[in-house]
Amino acid sequence: MSNQTASTVTYAAVYAATGEPSEVLAWKELPLRAPGPGEVLVALECAAVHPSDFGMITGTYGKKRELPAVAGREGVGRVEAVGSGVKNLAVGDRVRLPEPEGTWRERGVFAEAACLKMPSDLTPEAAAQCLVNPPTAIRVLNDFVALKPGDIVVQNAGNSAVGRTAAFYGRQLGVKVVSLVRNADKLRDELVAGGAALVVEDNDDAPKAIAAFKGESKVRLALNSVGGASVMRLIKACDPNAVVVTFGGMVGDLVRFPTRELIFNNITLKGYWMDKWGREASPETLAAHFEAVYKVFRDGLPLPTDRIVPVSEVVSAVARSRESGRSGKVLLRGPAWK
User: Fold this and answer.
1) What digits encode the pLDDT tens for the residues 132-148?
2) Using the 8-state DSSP alphabet, how is residue 318 labeled?
3) What is the extent of the structural domain holding 194?
4) Is 311 helix (H, G, I), strand (E, B) or coil?
5) CA–CA distance from 81 to each of 45, 94, 107 (Å)?
6) Nearest-CA neighbor of 15 among 4, 5, 24?
7) Is 178:210 a contact under the CB 8 Å cutoff?
8) What pLDDT was estimated at residue 283?
9) Model confidence over 256-292: pLDDT tens digits?
10) Quick check: is 138 in a domain?
11) 61 is annotated as an active-site residue
């Protein structure tokens, strides 16, 4: 290893108990060893802060880590050293940091097999967001309804990373994506430029606005990551036999449904968890899926960044990411960012 990476310590965002991030998350020193056989030393390049990260830290997410744990689910880094027997990775390669090990760290030693090799032509900001939100958007547009050009998809949280990806990718498919958002007048031009066919305020008038827009087209799929009253608006906008997919619950409220539409329009409600899909997919399917994700970034997927802060300032970054009015994701910059 170089002198830069020959340290016997590193630093990471650690929580020893579940709870509010401001109370349990701490930037702590951890031991760092040289990579052994089949292992690589990776320095963080960029990591994203997600709502699911809060769920992991508070203990409300669908899976939990053994404590104490390093926080963070999504991040990419650069290989700084390799152990004996490493065959597919070399110093300088960009890789995904293994999600179970935690990504909000300066450096770590990981098994080569646990580090997904990532393309180097993407910006650090794009690479760090290739693994959670855009993959979810692509999967939900492909896996529930055989969409045809001209079909309509309605979604809430249209200004989120998933929502923006769904609109951009949907336009490539020839699908009209309608995005429900708060502050629609402020966001409309930006979201339409990014692929949305229609942007409407997420209020009780939304189903009427969608009905006036759709003409002869059918709303065959709805994407819910908000919950509460918002999902009821999506369901009311759907045509008979549509599928409503829930993959998040931003408001922390129950998913509600209007009984009339459910019965008389034969609406189907389904749930989706990207983690589960990834565990069950074959290596070939995963490889093809991520190539599709990389392509949307290469095609110009616009995902705005609110701010980029050093990973050592992760506690303040988490606080910022929980504030309303952000313009995009909060990203963490690691020592490998050049």
Assistant:
1) 999 999 999 999 999 99
2) H
3) 145-271
4) helix
5) 15, 12, 11
6) 24
7) yes
8) 87
9) 777 888 888 999 999 999 989 988 999 899 999 999 9
10) no
11) yes
Examine the domain organization and report whether 262 and 322 are in the same domain: no
Residue written as token pair 């693994």: 131
Across all residues in the chain, what is the average pLDDT?
93
The candidate with the shortest Cα–Cα distance to 255, out of 209, 277, 223, is 223
Helix ranges (H only) for 101-205 are 124-127, 133-143, 161-173, 184-193
Instruction: Tell me the CA distances in angstroms from 67 to 10, 11, 56, 338, one per residue in order.
Output: 18, 17, 11, 32
β-sheet with 9-15: strand ranges across: 25-31, 9-15, 69-70
> Which of 61, 169, 272, 294 is flagged as catalytic?
61
Domains identified in the chain, total number: 2
pLDDT tens, residue by residue, 207-260: 999 999 999 999 999 999 998 899 999 999 999 999 999 998 776 566 777 788
pLDDT surpasses 70 at 4: no
Measure Cα distances from 285 to 68, 280, 282, 292 in Å: 33, 10, 5, 11
Looking at residues 297-304, what average pLDDT do you find? 95
Token pair listed for 133: 């939100």
Residue 124 near residue 149, CB atoms below 8 Å: no
Whether residue 158 sits in one domain with residue 121: no
CATH number for the domain spanning 308: value is 3.90.180.10
Tokens representing 198 are 């229609």
On whether residue 289 sits in a domain, the answer given is: no
As a whole number of angstroms, the distance between CA 12 and CA 27 comes to: 6
Tokens 């690589």 correspond to 40
